[in-house]
Amino acid sequence: MDISHASRPDSLPPIPVRAADPSRGTNQAGVRLYNERLALSLIRRHGPLPKADVARLTGLSAMTTTTIMNRLEAEGLLRRGEKQRGKVGQPSVPYALNPDGAFALGVKIGRRSCEFVVADLVGTVRSRRRMTYAWPLPGAVFGWLAAEIPQALATAGSDPARLVGMGVAVPFELWSWDAELGAPAPELQSWREVDIAAELSKLSGGPVQLCNDATAACAAELFAGRGARYRDFVYCFVGSFIGGGLVLNHALHVGRNGNAGALGSMPVARLDGPGHMSRPQLIRQASLFLLEERLVRSGRDPSAIWTDPTHWSGFDGEVEAWIAEVAPAIAPALVAASAVVDAEAMIVDGAFPAAVRSRLVASVAAEVDRLDRRGLSPAVLAEGSVGPEARAIGAAMLPLMAAFAPDREILFKDEEVRP
């Protein structure tokens, strides 16, 4: 099993396109908008490109490509670079995405923390905020966001006119984990009655898109991480609980109910004693809550897990024991999921320091090598590259993808809608 340690790309594969109704006709405005988004996606994925390369990759004429690129530059979405000399023919001018061309907010509401970021068009985080708590309460979360979002936007240097929306990453049924959180059940149950999108739309003043938190993390790996190099991959994110996502044909696949790649719900066999095999879900066998419980049993303060997920110190022994506990559960879940979709890669990330991620991936790789994988094609096991902020960053990617990624449905709209 290969383990990839390649550097982080700056590209974004396109999001999935929906099948169009063949009975409907295209219109000129829709075709133009689709081609513009296609050009933006190609530049995001490949890096700066001259007009000739965009024409070659899209199959559009040189004249049409020039018109598109000039319009995108005039709208502030592209910026031209220095002329490239030294090749046969006229010097070429590469065009790159303009980071200041658009901005989006990404919010992650988690079981132990809430965070949000302001990201620009290329996926760079311009501003970030984070708070931790024993358990999440709607009033406290929305009140904190209301106070912090204006300040974050001001420090990000973003043009309010170029804010395209807000994405929100939240666990499925946030209210259903009161026992694990040690929270009073009635307080968590209050989330059942909250329209999260409506509440946050009041704060952002624009559209809000909701997404499962692990799926959002998968979007961040696809948009701003090394996942862009793989055509298909199964994604695993270890947070308070464990979850996952799925990418097929360079596109985030969310499934019928938005839960595709929900590794946490996958039953994984466990030997509980001589002759006794149980099959609890992976979410019960691999999570940071297990590390928290281990630290509490050893008399240590577990709060550092949540307050600073990029730097842990003082509990290496517990971390090693935790890795030895969770790796044997993660490995068969990844292989089983990869067997179903014949994925090119399996990517593991989480809300922990990069050094811990490397040790965990190495242990998972060792467990994968012990499994009987006859009949399966080789797959790369790779470290994720985004880290603890993946869920918030992925949430910010949702409105950017909605505004600027190609979607064949645009071809059939009756009226032109500018991103």
Can you summarize this structure?
By secondary structure, this protein is an alpha/beta fold. It has helices at 28-46, 51-58, 62-74, 138-156, 178-181, 185-189, 196-204, 213-224, 288-297, 304-307, 316-341, 354-370, 390-404; strands at residues 3-4, 78-80, 95-97, 103-109, 113-120, 125-132, 163-170, 208-212, 233-238, 242-248, 251-252, 270-273, 276-278, 345-350, 380-383.
Please name the defining characteristics of this protein.
globular, Nucleotidyltransferase, domain 5, 419 residues, Arc Repressor Mutant, subunit A, 5-stranded mixed β-sheet, disordered C terminus, 13 helices, 6-stranded mixed β-sheet, disordered N terminus, 38% helix, alpha/beta
Task: Set down the secondary structure blueprint.
Blueprint: E1 3-4, H1 28-46, H2 51-58, H3 62-74, E2 78-80, E3 95-97, E4 103-109, E5 113-120, E6 125-132, H4 138-156, E7 163-170, H5 178-181, H6 185-189, H7 196-204, E8 208-212, H8 213-224, E9 233-238, E10 242-248, E11 251-252, E12 270-273, E13 276-278, H9 288-297, H10 304-307, H11 316-341, E14 345-350, H12 354-370, E15 380-383, H13 390-404
Parallel strand pairs: 1-15, 4-7, 7-8, 9-14, 14-15
Antiparallel strand pairs: 2-3, 4-5, 5-6, 9-10, 10-11, 12-13
Helix pairs in contact: 2-3, 4-7, 8-13, 11-12
